[in-house]
Write a structure and sequence with these properties.
single chain, 241 residues, alpha/beta, Carbamate kinase, two-stranded antiparallel sheet, 8 helices
């Protein structure tokens, strides 16, 4: 650990809610939480300031609830609350490892976590606390991908890192298309024009306009997050053209 030298001082890590399920079809796998928080804790102990955005798809997905007939705004609010639950679980797991963590919510829920305030979030990071950004942007119709882009830009992160189930960005789903091409580097324009579905369009455009580099890697490969943050060529990089 002492020999490792991070390439970034401040990052935002985006995790889908599905990443917390492990091999289950629903809910939270404690073993997955344990592994992820251990790796985040290792980064924290190296002095990396870590912001975390987690989705809620392992519990509820607003868009899918809306498709079943629920009012879209209400459905999205349910999805936001799911991200708060996931965030609290991650906070607890980090604290059991001796890592100070704060959950900051885009919607007011003061009994269980703090309201999101940009300056306070930056101060937490400067004090060595992991900051978990919950409830997306606080607005319906916006995904947690957009929330991750927004928070990364707001707190002046050096990179936005998205953890997925595959080792980068492919020309097609490699699970369904075995000979799909894997990209090592892309521009934001290429990601949009080729419809690679890296993140939603709003998130991509925000990163592009503000020059926020994006890294996409396999969150299920133990150690890859550390190697990526220490500058190794892991996953796919998306940058300005």
């Amino acid at each position: 650990m002492q020999d490792l030298k991070p390439a970034y001082k401040r990052i935002v890590l985006k995790l889908s809610g599905e990443a917390l399920m492990g091999s289950s079809s629903y809910g939270i796998d404690p073993q997955v939480i344990g592994r992820l928080t251990k790796e985040i804790g290792q980064l924290n102990r190296l002095g990396v300031q870590v912001g975390l955005v987690v989705g809620g798809g392992n519990l509820f997905r607003g868009a899918e609830l809306a498709e079943s007939g629920m009012d879209r705004v209400t459905a999205d609010h349910v999805g936001m609350l799911a991200t708060v639950m996931n965030s609290l679980v991650i906070q607890d797991a980090l604290e059991r490892l001796g890592i100070f963590a704060r959950v900051m919510s885009a919607i007011r829920i003061n009994e269980v976590c703090e309201d999101y305030l940009r300056r306070r979030a930056i101060r937490h990071l400067e004090k060595g606390r992991v900051v978990i950004f919950a409830a997306g942007t606080g607005n319906p119709f916006f995904t947690t991908d957009s929330a991750a882009s927004l928070r990364a830009i707001e707190i002046n992160a050096e990179v936005l890192i998205k953890g997925t189930k595959v080792d980068g960005i492919y020309s097609a789903d490699p699970v369904k298309v075995p000979d799909a091409r894997r990209y090592e580097k892309l521009t934001f324009e290429e990601a949009v024009n080729r419809k690679l579905q890296v993140m939603d369009a709003t998130a991509i455009v925000m990163c592009q306009e503000h020059g926020m580099p994006l890294k996409v890697f396999n969150i299920n490969r133990s150690g890859d997050l550390m190697r990526l943050v220490c500058g190794e060529n892991i996953g796919t990089s998306v940058v300005r053209g």
